[in-house]
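One chain shown below:
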Amino acid sequence: MIKKQNRKYLYKFLFVFTVIFSTNQVHASSLIDLLKALVGHPVFKQSHLYTSNDDIIITAQDGINLHANIFVPTSGLDYYPTIIFINSWGLDEYEYLTEAAKFAEQGYIVLSYSTRGFGNSGGKIATAGEQDINDVSAVIDYLLANYPVDESNIGLAGVSYGSGISLLSAAHEPRINAVAAMSTWGSLTESLYGHQSPRLIWGALLTGLGYLTGDPSDEIAKNYIGLLKQERIAEITQWANQRSPLNYIDKLNQNAVPIYLSNNFGDNLFQPNSVLKLYKALTGPKLLDLNQGTHAVGEVLGMGKAQHHVWKNVHAWFDHWLKGEQNGITNKKPVEMEIKFGEYEQFDNWPSADISQTTLYLHEKELDGDGDMKTTPYSPWWPKTDTIYSGLDTLASTGIPLISYMTEDYLDLPIISSMPLISTVNAIRWESDWLEEKMYLRGISKIHLNVTPSKSDALLVAYLYDVNWAGIGTLITHAPYTILNATPNETIEIDIDLVATAYDVPQGHYLALVIDTADILYSSPTTDLYKIKVNYENKINNTLTLSNK
């Protein structure tokens, strides 16, 4: 549970959080139970269908104690399928009480434990390291020794931190038979340092939450500060690679564990690109949901809702793979994407044969302050440049961290910006023609640029907007890119993968691509002022390649 001395700092936040969301899509009683658990008053739902025990202590391989709770069905079977829930970062064994009770009612043994360093468990936070993987094995040993567990039907599940430990454990522990990984990651390296760009806000949030709610190892703050300073990068990326499921794809495929993956398009902690890579690389049974919203919010607040998209799939996934129920979960199309402000759309696979690439060529800025994006290459008679100057942020933005993507998902409030008001000094903007028909953006769009930085280090942030007749742009997606150790005033080529999206651009709107040098989500590699020249020459193209249906 949250450290007693720190609980008071959470009360006001939790109250506001409840007021905002309990009146919308969230099942209010489940949310209240969750909030009670967060502040040290867990609620165990009573039922004649199971018994529960909140006094479970499991001894890990290195001798530390892991605190847990368990639900055991009372139907009298010899053995039961079993689910192990692993807590999110900053939470503990009580996070999943609502879902644990539901699964127990349906005939599962359900054990939830606090990972080392969190809740009442001993040890230091290991950040999904080897100790955490060994702890999963110790939990399975304990269950098999003390409860009527069906050894051939054990599943792991978790949101965020717990999802990563679940995937990593599935690569190393042969007794795991199914996984449900929600708000998960494929590459921790890419999540923390994609495009060489440290995640400023999310890194600070995780590091601070670790100290507020747990007992972190020294490496957590040390590595975060190292990323911000662009120091010890090889050491830190090696540390993160060891915690990346993609690094163990051969073992995952060898074990062929059925894996359900869920991630969110607005998740700026574990952005969906590496999850798409993980899904593509997996060869065993798999299912992927990409939802709207930000990190973990939908999954945590959706607990207890029978028709919640993700949790409904989690139940069906375990019912099929751990109980053998023929419920259709393996017959449905395996990839579902929730369209921003729309419904879910299904695909037979990913990458999908339904997706094509449309390349727009970036043209030099004109007198009206922006450049064009055309379907034909730009071949000027002589070399030309556009220049972006650092020093000030612009109105191009990812919004308020965490909050903007929550309100976008729950209240349909888009992240917007006025295109004419974006600085033409500190940013450059390219605009497409008016769309003659709706455009269906799906997946990862890409940018290719030929640039000349004035300094060795620089940050660029790209934003893709859907713009209406009034010049108001709705943010579709974005991505940072950090230039490091470049030779000043020499031209380099850079490639930027935008964060995956599912977005319909209406007929009569147009696309705008904006690039500036700052965003609150990302740390700049330098405090020096710099300028970036975008170069246009014959047969040297700057492009935006759209992934669209």
Observations:
- The chain is about 25% helix and 30% strand.
- Residues 9 and 286 are 40 Å apart (CA to CA).
- The first strand starts at residue 50 and ends at 59.
- The two ends are 46 Å apart (CA to CA).
